[in-house]
Amino acid sequence: MTRVSGNPAHRLRAPSALVAAGLLGLTTACGGGGEDGGEVTSITALDYNLAEPQNGATESMLQECGEQAGVEVEREALPREQLMPRLLQGASQQELPDLMLIDNPDLPQFAATGALLPLEEAGFDTAGYYDSVLQVGTHEDTLYGIASGVNGLALFTNTALLQDAGVEPPATWQELREAADELTRGDTKGFAFSAIGHEEGTWTFEPFMWSNGATLTELDSPEAVEALELWAGMVEDGSVSQSVVNWSQADVNDQFIGGRAAMMINGSWQIPVLAEEDVDYEVVPLPVPEAGGDPATPMGGEVWAIGRNGTEREEKAAEVLRCLLSDDNMTEWAELNAYVPAKEEPAQRLAEDNEQMAPFVESVPTAQARTADLGEDYPDVSAAIADAIQQALAGSGSAEDALAQAQQSVPES
Amino acid sequence: MLARVGFLAPLVVYLAVFFGYPLLANQSMALREYTAASFYTGEAPFVGAANYAAVLADPVFGTALSNTALFTVGSLVFQFAIGLALAVFFQRHVPLNGLLRSLLLVPWLLPLVVSGTVWRWIFDQEYGVLNQTLLGLGLIDQGVPWLSSTSMALASVTVANIWVGIPFNMVILYGGLQSIPAHLYEAAALDGAGPWQRFRHVTWPLLRPVSAVVLMLGLVYTLKQFDVIMVLTQGGPANATQTLTTWAHALSFGELDFGLGAAVGNLLIVIALVFALVYLRGLRTQPGAPGSGRRG
């Protein structure tokens, strides 16, 4: 990247960098890399895998793969909400990490900047990957990000509580509502999910919209309204706590572990957390509107992307990434962290070995990319959906009105 | 002359670099379509007042503005009143005075993320201390959704913020009280003034300069309050606790539209300035004679 001082676009960069640094109060990090022109001896990596076991596994895998590629990997890990500001700051100084882990719905925003290396250019072989996995890393027909593993949502049920109440894990919306009602006793609510006012709430709701035939471009469709009415109805019944509007997925998991929710919607990554606790549970696919329908889960998980930092560093980063994505590493990572491997064959093997993971593996081929229809506009619409959910659940408006308002944020195509 | 310039230069440079420049840069950002891509490409097309127009036309703007006003006024009034009451209380010789005063400082010393988390537990609908207590006393028959209903959430976050701000008010006002000469009280007592009259005619007027500082700082601090709301409700449910600060954050880092976020930030600066000017003017025009400072 050469700087042309006469270009007005470039003149703008210095102030924006300073504003970013000043406003965000971030420390300048990054750097690293090899000497200019010399051989690349180290590359930088940025991720937000701070929770164990992800943290340790990421660290050791990066080091191992770095050794194989003959570079030292300087890893930086930040909380998720600091990742984007950090990446933007790096972008403004043309100092992006060589390898970075981005939550998949944020990828189009980033790919659109031109700061990421198209992976085909780096010679990535995509054979064996789930199409749906490749799709979440694709922006405008170009692959910019690739996942080692993905995750999805399913229904977790507390075996003991269901047995006590004589309730079977529900498969349809009707059964879900009845089961939630019957399981609500004393301090225990029948059902819990995250309806927090940002992406976490939206992504928990999307399978309900999608499996009912609604799309992200028509938020005010009867199908979408019906899905939101299901949620609002259960809150009204009292079988779901109204507090869900403030619960993250981790909070929902805490409620489930504490026996205060008999069923919950959550992601596969909670399995290692649940394993540490004394809860007997079962995982089933998300209930669907009509028996026999396919659950439509949004594809969750993070993708690795390579920053445009000059051919030599890009090559090293690609080498490290190829190692991270080897079948062995992919499987090891997935087993340790309860993710579904991004390639079909290792994923099938995992499903056979681990029945708790089976519903998640099953859902991957039909899982949808959240950004498929909206691309860069997704964060905007996601925020509007989260708002609509909260309006309907916190008792300030009907599902229909709330979604009609959310529809205004959908760009006209 | 040269000495004077040399004396002022560091201050001017400091102000220009740390106040002037960010303000101007933020203004420039607010006039552009500034997205995530702009950070990398440096391309942020000039769009004039479009960001301001979009922000002002957004239904959330009205909500955020009135929430900001209610949150700020509510916090200031109660923080000041309770802080003053405590300061007057501790002015007397209470046993364990020093210990109690230091304990009351705790809310001020705790990181906001910690106190915010504690308030989340207190307000929890199902097993929060507050609802459990009220249920135990038989005052309510089911848990109140303190943080999860659009009608209660703003009041709840305001209460949490008041709790955080009381120690600051108390400490500064207590300091102000210490500087009032004791003989004035003796004289007032000799004139037959009761406790309320002594407060009205001695304490209150002499405390006015300190009160002004406390309220001014409180105003600025509360207008930009961010952490308490983020920890408790993140501006939700459904924008019920969205203030201009949390909204600017949501626009910038949730929707990655930095132009809109900067526009909201600038509006907040203007509002703070207007408040500050009105307030300072009000102070200046009022005669400082005892008895004229009747407010609140």
Automatic annotation (TrEMBL), chain A:
Protein name: Multiple sugar transport system substrate-binding protein
Claim: rRNA processing is one of the keywords in the record: no
Pfam family, one: SBP_bac_8
Highest taxon in the source lineage: Bacteria
Keyword check for RNA-binding: no
Keyword annotations: Sugar transport, Transport
SUPFAM superfamilies xref list: Periplasmic binding protein-like II (SSF53850)
Automatic annotation (TrEMBL), chain B:
Keywords from the named record: Cell membrane, Membrane, Sugar transport, Transmembrane, Transmembrane helix, Transport
Protein known as: Multiple sugar transport system permease protein
Transmembrane segments: 6-25, 69-90, 102-123, 143-164, 206-223, 258-280
GO CC term (a single one): plasma membrane
Entry similarity comment: Belongs to the binding-protein-dependent transport system permease family.
PROSITE patterns: ABC_TM1
UniProt record, GO biological process: transmembrane transport
Subcellular location: Cell membrane
Topology of this chain in the membrane: Multi-pass membrane protein
Source domain of life: Bacteria
